[in-house]
Amino acid sequence: MSILSLPFLEGYIRMANDGFLQGWHERNGGNLTYRMAEEEVAAARPFFKPQPGDWTDIGVEVPGLAGEYFLATGSGKYFRNVILAPQDNICIAEIDGTGRQYRVVWGLEAGGKPTSEFPTHLMNHSVKKRVTNGEHRVIYHAHTPSLIALTYVLPLTDKAFSQVLWQSATECPVVFPGGVGVVEWMVPGGRDIAIATSKLMEKYDVAVWAHHGLFCSGPDFDITFGLMHTVEKSADIYVRVLSCGQGVRQTITSDNLRAIAREFGVVLREELLD
Ligand code: 2HA
Ligand code: ZN
């Protein structure tokens, strides 16, 4: 019996590899974190290091996550290598009783630390744990090319991005009825971008990082990967439309979107519609 056959670890590794195969994780791009359930921590504990890593400042305070355990990709590690050597490229990190520090209890066997975006991930987890009553467990950041391309040509507003993404494939409003938030260009990896993103996560499950990529939140690996996939596919369709070079001749109108929402029993954020 190996820790790698625990279902949550299998699901995490499969998702990381699926993201690589989509072309979203060049080099060390992107990061994935998962808030483990209590029974998953219990099942993994026998495999923890005899001597955990040192307590290290997170850089932000997340008291709502005190005592939680997270699976996380390693800083500078490549998604491409996760499936080959999970123990060297990902880790389990424990949060202390104050929510200010973490320590590595499994993984990163050849050295290293959790993703450079750990502060943003943990602030997002903290918000999502609160607003979903503990339902959301996955935060996923990817360098999705078509969505990144759109951040050079669309206004950097929640309304502009939500409308384009809802209009570019009919089922999008059903998949992310809440719409998407947009963070203007910021230096990655720090406290400021963590705070800006976590503010958006109060109301959205998707945050666009201008000229950088996407953040998605969800309850499990399937739904969170599916959300990233759906948003990026929609962005890709819009890029193809623009590439035809004649502009948009017809589209799904705001009233059409309202009709989809009525039929499928979802609520679209009205301020994002015309
Ligand atoms: O390289 O994606 O945002 C990891 C990242 C930083
Ligand atoms: Zn990134």
The main sheet orders its strands as 2-5-4-3-1-6-9-8-7
pLDDT averaged over residues: 98
> Shape from CA axes?
elongated
**SS class:** alpha+beta
Heterogens: Dihydroxyacetone, zinc ion
In whole angstroms, the N-to-C terminal distance is 56 Å
Q: What Rg do the Cα atoms give?
A: 19 Å
Q: Point out poorly predicted stretches.
A: none
Percentage of residues in helical conformation: 25-40%
Walk me through this protein's architecture.
It is built from 11 helices and 9 strands. The mean pLDDT is 98. A 9-stranded mixed β-sheet has the order 2-5-4-3-1-6-9-8-7, sandwiched between helices. The protein has 274 residues and is α+β, with helices and mostly antiparallel strands. It is 40% helix and 16% strand. A hairpin with a 5-residue loop joins β4 (90-95) and β5. The chain has helices at residues 7-21, 38-44, 79-82, 86-89, 118-131, 145-150, 158-167, 172-175, 191-201, 221-243, 254-264; strands at 31-35, 56-57, 69-73, 90-95, 101-107, 138-142, 181-183, 206-209, 213-218. It binds Dihydroxyacetone (2HA) and zinc ion. The site of Dihydroxyacetone has 8 residues, from loops. Dihydroxyacetone (2HA) binds next to loops.
